[in-house]
């Protein structure tokens, strides 16, 4: 019976829930005739199995591809959600700021509409107030009950010390009154009925601003347009006896008014300031007269009158300067505008406004350098607070970006923020954030280096990536901080730390280690070569690599020296002191090639020690000598490539120690042969000594002598061993 591979009924049998393989095989075997049907069935089953495996692999691949695409989409959506969350937070802060500003405006509008109603109510309390309310432009600002304070001096005689007068603390009495502050005057109304205090009559009317007349008035008007000097002065009384009080100086007279509580006093002072200095921010001018009680209690004299007159003139001058300073609307609204700009993350406009405010304040201080202007200091302080807030926002944004990973496509945006901090004068902070960006860029860039089959190729690519990023960082740094030489120290320190990280990474991944000396020397040679190229074009960083590699190289050289010593000891222990026999001329050529790779003229180097007799090729050197020569030449060649001054002494000591130890074994062999007739053996050993000193070590000496400087004296002492060994061989 034949089954079609495309027969769906046949394939459906495998999908049945109660499918049993044994029953299926028995049914197939019972229906098959001979081995031909069974072979066909086996072939078809194998074909179905292969197709199933192929479909399974394709499904796995498709699902894996979809999984990767989904993961990328999720990552992208996560980034967008994070950005959306940040934007929503900014919008929320902006809306809250606008809401607060609108609430302030609504309160102001509601106050304006309620003034008329409140004014009508006050007319019932003040019987003769209509006499002073005839001005249609007059508007009520604030009103309320006050206590007028009258001070009394009590003098007593103290007869203990020369009958001199001493003043006791001043006592005072209060009279209830009602204060009404208008846009142009302040009215004090007193009750005609002391007990009930339900009806009030106007007692005093104090004009808030001076009215200028005559020629001097015209000149003053030309000099100070829209500026009216104040006719009264408000003094914030800070005294333990009279609490919650303020004084009004008018025409050399002083009126002291007491409020119910500190909050009421603060409100009265703010209202007076808004009336006297309409362009001045509230709470910035609160005058304090520390000696008010004593001066008010003292009898008036000509000297005190002159002093008061001088004080009044100074304070009036201060008011004129302040109104001149706040003459432009943008100065008055600087604080509010900065709040809105920072909430909108409009850093450029905020920077421009801060710089403009700085320049304006500095020019004003230069023009009025002879006068004290405390209100300018307060203005500068408020701007500086917003400046600090701007710096914190920029710092937070850059740090958040660096935590997620910087993108080279947005470098201009990052560096624009750095320039903003630099223009504000925060150069150290700008430099720190620049280095933070470079740290993130270096980390993400090095991660993109692909692993190669050859480790040396990977190290070269890794070093190329590192130095390419370092070059870009240098040019970007110079472009931003070229006029700030003091910041170059931080940049150099950052480069040094990055070089240390690079060496640590290569060391941890065994690209620079004590296990494979030749491979390690190649990798270090790559690093030093790249560093030398960078140093010749930009900044000298080779010394940084040399310092970072010094201790590591000392350890590597010491470890490799110990390996050579162990091998040398083992070979000399088994040495038979017989010449080396080579099987063919091809082996001789191979030996020449090996020494040629080590940087020698191999034929000139080995020819004096090779003898050919009847097609028998012999090298009159011991096997241990030849093997040591290869190891010693390889060791010296690798160290010569990476030689620099910091490890010079370590290299010289290692080379001298190895050759001396090698000669020490010759000395021991000659000592054993003393008082014997083994003349040929002694001559053979001296042949090895001559090769080791006059050929092998002489080559190393010639190679290193131009580099090692004064350390050449250690090499010179090696040649002294030759005469000693000759004497031992001759004895």
From TrEMBL:
<dbReference type="GO" id="GO:0030426">
    <property type="term" value="C:growth cone"/>
</dbReference>
<dbReference type="GO" id="GO:0006893">
    <property type="term" value="P:Golgi to plasma membrane transport"/>
</dbReference>
<dbReference type="InterPro" id="IPR001849">
    <property type="entry name" value="PH_domain"/>
</dbReference>
<comment type="function">
    <text>Component of the exocyst complex involved in the docking of exocytic vesicles with fusion sites on the plasma membrane.</text>
</comment>
<keyword id="KW-0813">Transport</keyword>
<dbReference type="GO" id="GO:0015031">
    <property type="term" value="P:protein transport"/>
</dbReference>
<comment type="similarity">
    <text>Belongs to the EXO84 family.</text>
</comment>
<dbReference type="InterPro" id="IPR033961">
    <property type="entry name" value="Exo84"/>
</dbReference>
<dbReference type="Pfam" id="PF16528">
    <property type="entry name" value="Exo84_C"/>
</dbReference>
<dbReference type="InterPro" id="IPR016159">
    <property type="entry name" value="Cullin_repeat-like_dom_sf"/>
</dbReference>
<dbReference type="GO" id="GO:0000145">
    <property type="term" value="C:exocyst"/>
</dbReference>
<dbReference type="InterPro" id="IPR042560">
    <property type="entry name" value="Exo84_C_2"/>
</dbReference>
<dbReference type="GO" id="GO:0006887">
    <property type="term" value="P:exocytosis"/>
</dbReference>
<keyword id="KW-0653">Protein transport</keyword>
<feature type="domain" description="PH">
    <location>
        <begin position="140"/>
        <end position="279"/>
    </location>
</feature>
<dbReference type="InterPro" id="IPR011993">
    <property type="entry name" value="PH-like_dom_sf"/>
</dbReference>
<keyword id="KW-0268">Exocytosis</keyword>
<dbReference type="InterPro" id="IPR032403">
    <property type="entry name" value="Exo84_C"/>
</dbReference>
<protein>
    <recommendedName>
        <fullName>Exocyst complex component 8</fullName>
    </recommendedName>
</protein>
<dbReference type="InterPro" id="IPR042561">
    <property type="entry name" value="Exo84_C_1"/>
</dbReference>
<dbReference type="GO" id="GO:0048471">
    <property type="term" value="C:perinuclear region of cytoplasm"/>
</dbReference>
<dbReference type="Pfam" id="PF08700">
    <property type="entry name" value="VPS51_Exo84_N"/>
</dbReference>
């Amino acid at each position: 019976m034949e089954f079609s591979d495309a027969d769906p009924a046949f394939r459906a049998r495998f999908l049945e829930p109660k499918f049993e393989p044994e029953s299926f095989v028995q049914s197939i075997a019972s229906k098959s005739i001979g081995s031909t049907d069974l072979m066909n069935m086996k072939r078809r089953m194998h074909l179905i199995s292969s197709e199933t495996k192929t479909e399974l692999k394709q499904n796995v691949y498709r699902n894996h591809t979809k999984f990767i695409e989904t993961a990328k989409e999720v990552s992208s959506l996560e980034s967008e959600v994070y950005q959306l969350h940040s934007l929503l937070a900014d919008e929320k802060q902006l809306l809250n700021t606008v809401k607060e500003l609108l609430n302030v405006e609504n309160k102001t509008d509601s106050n304006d509409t309620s003034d008329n109603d409140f004014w009508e109510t006050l007319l019932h309390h003040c019987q003769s107030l209509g006499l002073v309310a005839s001005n249609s432009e007059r508007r009520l600002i604030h009103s309320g009950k006050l206590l007028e304070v009258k001070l009394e001096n009590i003098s007593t005689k103290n007869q203990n010390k020369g009958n001199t007068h001493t003043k006791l603390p001043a006592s005072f009495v209060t009279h209830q009154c009602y204060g009404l502050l208008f846009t142009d005057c302040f009215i004090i109304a007193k009750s005609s009925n002391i007990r009930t205090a339900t009806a009030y009559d106007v007692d005093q009317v104090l004009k808030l601003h001076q009215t200028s007349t005559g020629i001097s008035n015209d000149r003053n008007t030309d000099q100070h347009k829209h500026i009216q000097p104040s006719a009264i002065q408000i003094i914030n009384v800070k005294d333990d006896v009279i609490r919650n009080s303020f004084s009004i100086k008018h025409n050399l007279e002083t009126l002291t008014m007491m409020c119910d509580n500190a909050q009421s006093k603060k409100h009265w002072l703010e209202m007076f300031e808004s009336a006297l200095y309409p362009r001045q921010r509230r709470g910035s001018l609160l005058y304090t007269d520390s000696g008010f009680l004593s001066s008010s209690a003292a009898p008036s004299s000509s000297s005190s009158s002159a002093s008061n007159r001088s004080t009044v003139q100074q304070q009036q001058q201060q008011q004129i300067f302040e109104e001149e300073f706040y003459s432009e609307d943008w100065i008055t609204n600087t604080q509010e505008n900065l709040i809105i700009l920072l909430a909108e993350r409009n850093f450029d406009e905020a920077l421009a406004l801060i710089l403009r405010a700085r320049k304006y304040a500095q020019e004003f201080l230069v023009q009025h350098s002879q006068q004290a202007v405390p209100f300018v200091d307060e203005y500068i302080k408020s701007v500086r607070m917003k400046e600090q807030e701007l710096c914190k926002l920029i710092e937070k944004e850059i740090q958040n970006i660096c935590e997620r990973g910087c993108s080279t496509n947005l470098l201009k945006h990052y560096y624009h923020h750095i320039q903003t901090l630099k223009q504000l004068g925060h150069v150290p902070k700008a430099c720190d954030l620049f280095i933070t960006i470079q740290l993130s860029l270096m980390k993400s860039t090095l991660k993109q280096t692909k692993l190669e089959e050859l480790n040396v190729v990977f190290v070269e690519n890794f070093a190329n990536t590192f130095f390419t990023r370092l070059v870009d960082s240098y040019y970007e740094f110079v472009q931003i901080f070229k006029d700030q030489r003091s910041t170059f120290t931080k940049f150099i320190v950052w480069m040094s730390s990055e070089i240390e990280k690079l060496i640590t990474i290569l060391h941890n991944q065994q690209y620079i280690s004590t296990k494979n000396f030749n491979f390690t020397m190649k990798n270090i040679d790559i690093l030093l070569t790249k560093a030398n190229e960078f140093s010749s074009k930009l900044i000298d960083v080779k010394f940084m690599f040399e310092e970072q590699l010094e201790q590591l190289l000392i350890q590597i050289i010491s470890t490799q020296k110990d390996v050579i010593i162990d091998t040398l000891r083992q070979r000399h222990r088994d040495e038979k002191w017989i010449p080396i026999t080579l099987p063919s001329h091809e082996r001789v050529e191979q030996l020449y090639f090996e020494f040629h790779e080590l940087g020698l003229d191999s034929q000139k180097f080995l020819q004096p020690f090779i003898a050919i007799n009847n097609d028998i090729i012999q090298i009159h050197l011991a096997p241990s000598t030849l093997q040591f020569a290869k190891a010693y030449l390889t060791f010296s060649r690798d160290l010569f490539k990476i030689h620099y001054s910091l490890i010079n002494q370590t290299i010289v000591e290692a080379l001298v120690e190895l050759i001396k130890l090698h000669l020490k074994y010759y000395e021991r062999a000659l000592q054993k042969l003393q008082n014997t007739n083994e003349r040929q053996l002694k001559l053979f050993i001296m042949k090895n000594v001559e090769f080791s000193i006059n050929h092998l070590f002489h080559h190393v000496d010639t190679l290193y002598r131009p580099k090692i400087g004064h350390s050449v004296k250690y090499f010179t002492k090696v040649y002294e061993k030759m005469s000693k060994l000759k004497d031992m061989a001759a004895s």
